[in-house]
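Researcher: Can you fold this with zinc ion in place?
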Amino acid sequence: MTSTTPIAFSGAPLDLAENQRSASDLNAFLKGDNARAFVMFKGRFLVKNGDLVQMHPSQLKGLHLYDPGPLFLGLDGNIPQFSFSLAKENEAQNLVSGASLDHIRNIASFMDAHQLALAGRAKSLFDWHRSHRFCSNCGVESKPQAGGVTRQCPSCETDHFPRVNPVVIMLVLEGDNCLLGRGPEWPEGAFSALAGFVSPGESLSEACIREVKEEVNIDVKSPVYKFSQPWPFPGQLMMGMFCTATNTEITLDTKELAEAKWFTKDTVRAVYEGTDTSFLCPPEFTIAHQLIKAWLES
Ligand SMILES: [Zn+2]
């Protein structure tokens, strides 16, 4: 992946077909010769030889489906793309000889970018349905609508829309140095950009400034938005930023980070080129990797 290619999990030119989501539209799409479906079980995908398995929806007839049933992801050119979440693990695993269930995070590094974007949308939608089955207004079980892009409560008729959680992820810079941190659960040596959820009432810039202050007690100024990434683990939207430190002494919040260090641009470049082992860089499919790469190229 280069800085000119799409950020992983984005870039699928799907037509969401907002006006073609009636029951009859969806039925026609499902029966169309060119319809394709991913198969999932509890957020894992059916995978064979490193690729996601896709099949015609008719091949899934009679199997037990988990709420929300078929999710219509949209039109990929003239191909209606669906994902099916099966309720029984053995039914998923026995569908295709040699296939197995795996997390897309495990295979994202090797996957075709287009398939990865479709799978990311499928997983985000599925995770939302799974965690929002009941109406937040009255508590009655809600029902999927319009191919799974909304849910509606049959009691109070409230419409519920898929939730996306905004997260800021920022490269803190000072001269020719950048600050990277290691989370408490991360492997020894693995460092990445700092990140945190945007809080209600905050702008992206305010969230960036607050998070850096909270995690390492460093003041930053001039947050600049660079690019974003849909991150389906689960439904987050990562907003990548650069910001400039006005002081450099690190005081860790040890609940958030196990370590944080300043690294010179030369060291980071050497790590990215594979000639230095000062730290393990984030995987290429992550926005952290792309943010650091953008800084190296600036
Ligand atoms: Zn309700």
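Model: Folded with zinc ion in place. DSSP finds seven helices and 16 strands in the chain.
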